Amino acid sequence: MIEKIGTNAGVVWNALHDGGKMTLKALKKATKIKAEKDMYAALGWLAKEGKIAFEEADGETFVSLV
After folding, report:
1. CATH, residue 42
2. Of 22, 38, 46, 49, which residue is least crowded by CB atoms under 10 Å?
């Protein structure tokens, strides 16, 4: 499970690196990570490492690289 989370974290990081700041919905589409729990685990991994930032605007959550 830890390996899968790390792999998904890499996929999320690459999507943000290539596409810039995204909504959670756009990020899920860009990464093709199907399960929400897998997406949130990957985001948690990156957040713990201080690699991403979250921003709330207009009722949406945006994620970007730090």
Report:
1. 1.10.10.10
2. 49
* Residue type for position 63: V
Q: Residue written as tokens 């201080």?
A: 50
Separation CA 18–CA 33 (nearest Å) = 16
Q: Could you identify the residue written with the tokens 């949130």?
A: 40
The string of pLDDT tens digits covering residues 32-41 is 999 999 999 9
For the stretch 1-57, pLDDT in tens is 999 999 999 999 999 999 999 999 999 999 999 999 999 999 999 999 999 999 999
Report pLDDT for 42.
Answer: 98
Which domain covers residue 43, as residue numbers? 2-65
Q: Total domain count for the chain? A: 1
pTM of the model: 0.94
